[in-house]
Amino acid sequence: MNDYLRFRSIAIIVAVLCASLPGEAESQFSEPPIPEKLLAWKKLELPRKTIGQPAGLVFGRRDNVVVAWTLHDDIIIWDFANDKHEIIPLGQRIPLGESIRRVIVTPDDFYAVTKTGNAVSIQSKKDEVYRLGSQKALTNDVDLAKDGQMIALARSSPKENESSVALIDIRQNTTLRTVSKTSKEIYGVTTVRFSPDQTQLAVAWENVVVRYDVKTMNELAVYPPFNNLVGEIEWEPTGKYLAVICNSIREPNWEITYGDLRVHILAGDSNKEITTLGGNSNLVTSIAFPRAMKFNSQAITAGGVDHVRRWNLETGSVVAPKPSIGDGNETYVSLSNTGKLLATVADDTERILFSIYQMPNER
């Protein structure tokens, strides 16, 4: 876990890899019947020595495929319906120091976002298709719009004591809009995330989250400040909620301290905090929202040993009396497009275990 947080704190470059699983289009996938209780369905175990520590997990365009990535810059594509998987060693062809930040799934393909330094590149599965050369500012975070045509860059210029967010059209290689703020922190802007409909952009300026109109970059809402720096922002699929995961960075040497074990749930249409998901014994590393309407006020979090929980967002409480599931040190979770399947990845010293669970049939 320390490796992951340290990985978030270094200087950043962005590259995008298009990856599709051979034969996916021909894959015939029918989901199993919905169970009454959360039920483990499929598992994939890989030796820990061959791939690095997990850094993220997401479902593909179809619910039969899960895409994961590691701190060793490997992409794992698991077609669990057909019991096949593929490992793409992205680290063998990207420049030294680049690291996978996250994976975005667009209507057309998978995109693996990697970062380090202060340059930006986008790569297909075979070659590089876009590069933004070395900038004076450090790129702290990046998000790719769902249509695969626009990126948001969070950048900091320590010498100028300024942080900025830029929207860039990657087809025309032009900067569309920019918003800037002064900051005394080198990572004054930490996180950027497009809303599901791409009309809004959530930005974390150190410990303050602001929502912007993508067309104008005018402020739509400014949320009350948190006690710690914002590490992750995740939108609920309808835009009703924003989940904020915080961590704290202490100078000198950027030592990570775990100052906030809660997840903050913000309203997507106002500047209010709805609730907090507390009582976690470990730092939460991932949150996922169901897409099914009957679960639209719930969320699932992961972080720590056997620590996957399902929450009621209206009350901030755990849904089940015994919420913990899993197979070890679960670090990331993802929900399928239909909301019927839950994917988790667990990590220990000898193995990485991917699991698919069937979501229960309950109200």
How does this model look, in words?
- With 363 residues, this protein is mostly beta strands.
- Helices cover 2% and strands 50% of the residues.
- It is built from one helix and 31 strands.
- The protein has one helix at 2-9, and strands at 15-18, 39-47, 54-59, 65-70, 75-79, 84-88, 99-105, 110-115, 120-123, 128-132, 138-144, 150-157, 162-169, 174-182, 189-194, 200-205, 208-213, 219-222, 229-235, 241-250, 255-257, 263-267, 273-277, 286-288, 298-302, 304-305, 308-312, 317-318, 329-335, 341-347, 351-358.
- The strands form eight sheets. It has a five-stranded antiparallel beta sheet with strand order 2-31-30-29-26, with no helix packed on it. Strands 19, 20, 21, 22 and 23 form a five-stranded antiparallel beta sheet that branches.
- Residues 1-28 and 249-256 have low confidence and may be disordered.
